[in-house]
Amino acid sequence: MQAEAFTSWFAAVVQDDMNQGIDVSMDVQALLMPPSRNAKSYKSMYAYGNHIRVRSIESNMNTCDSGVVATFLQACHVSNNDRNARTESYNI
Fold first, then answer.
1. pLDDT digits (tens, 9 = 90+) for 5-23
2. Rounded Cα gap, residues 39 and 23, in angstroms
3. Which residue in 28, 6, 7 sits closest to 17, CA to CA?
């Protein structure tokens, strides 16, 4: 199977790099670990500036979401003579 070939190849390459003393990031090393059999559950979390709750937790709450989120791009110059514009993004 193709996926098994990739996983064994990937593990061999990373292990070979580690044996040679090459610094392998913790994220890459974590990809070698098998998935955990322990499931975790959370009643709420913060993600991308939003507070997300499980619906059963919100049953006794009154909430209102009237916000608008947008991303804008703007070309910025240091002065009028500046020919190298930088693009900046703004989240509003």
1. 888 898 899 999 999 999 9
2. 31
3. 28
And the tokens for 48?
Answer: 């991308």
Q: Classify the C-alpha dihedral 35-40-42-46 as positive or negative.
A: negative
pTM: 0.38
Handedness of CA 46, 48, 54, 55 (dihedral sign): positive
Question: Which value, to the nearest 10 degrees, does the dihedral of the CA atoms of residues 10, 11, 13, 16 take?
Answer: 180
Residue 51 near residue 69 (C-beta atoms within 8 A): no
Residue entry with tokens 């913790």: 26
Q: Please state, in angstroms and as integers, the Cα–Cα distance from residue 85 to each residue in 57, 60, 71, 90, following that order.
A: 48, 51, 19, 16
Distance between CA atoms of 6 and 13, rounded to whole angstroms?
10
Amino acid code (one letter) for 51: H
pLDDT in tens, 70-92: 777 777 777 777 777 777 776 66
